[in-house]
Specification:
By secondary structure, the chain is of the alpha/beta class. 45% of the residues are buried.
Amino acid sequence: MPSRHPLEADLDHILSHTQDGFHLLCDKEVFVSGGTGFVGKWLLESFLWANERLGLNAKAHVLSRDPDSFRSRHPRLADAHQITFYKGDVRNFDFPQQSIDFIIHAATDASARLNQSNSLLMLDTIVDGTRRMLDFARHCKAKRFLLTSSGAVYGKQPPTLSHVPEDYTGAPDPSEPMSAYGEGKRLSEFLCAIYHCEYGLETTTARCFAFVGPYLNLDIHYAVGNFIRDGLAGGPIRVSGDGTLYRSYLYAADLVIWLWTLLFRGKPGEAYNVGSEEAISIKELAYRVCNAFSPSHKVIIAQTPNPGVPPQQYVPCTEKAKVELALDVWIDLDTAIKKTILWYQK
């Protein structure tokens, strides 16, 4: 008897909220950049699940700098007959001679280390990569184009603004090289707007915030991933700052529902915040992760808060996506944390 898919419940959850949209992929071709990252793996998992369950006869094409390395780590995804991999850099890859109907551009190195050590490379990868993908969309006459952008386009969220909406006009500090990631995403969105207005390409933008779930890299700058890593190692769970910064976290399965829905039904030329509105301090997050382990672990907070400094926030307003597209948060944070821990334990 074949073993059950470890993400079966999540994939059924995704399909239950996207089934009507997935029917648009019947006999169609989808191209994904960034298909080997956290978001990309979830897109491929859900694509394969929907393709099989709904009999779509759809094909996915994935751009990767190192398909062989991905195949060695994820052979089930890499060897699926419905997926074809192309080796290349998103900035200058050769256009496959293939008719493509839908494009998801999710290729960005979100490394804080790269943003600090080589801001020009970060900027070039984001901007040149987006331009190349948009040119490819015109070349292959794609119908729809989804850009995965970031809440970083808003710059620092003012302490007086609890949830940042899409029409907030703040921006990263252009005098700070560390703004390369946010500025790059702003330019990417600008390019999408130009291609939509001048060439009629149906571009939609997903401004992504913070997420948790299986496939999340536990060893880079994501606090929730670091806390889960510490807990899996037996603790203690360490907070490197003072724990006052506020974030919000959307579970990966809900994230993918939002992304597929934006690809299928998002308004062309528009951007949507993608994330949870449940604000939580990093300190509270550490304890929530701690309590998800049995037995629970000790939490160590490295710094003492400065009472004269208001806490920084990075929390979206998602009213637009909820009202226009009936999107929501179906999996609460505690459940999301527990599901992620269980996946890594297995």
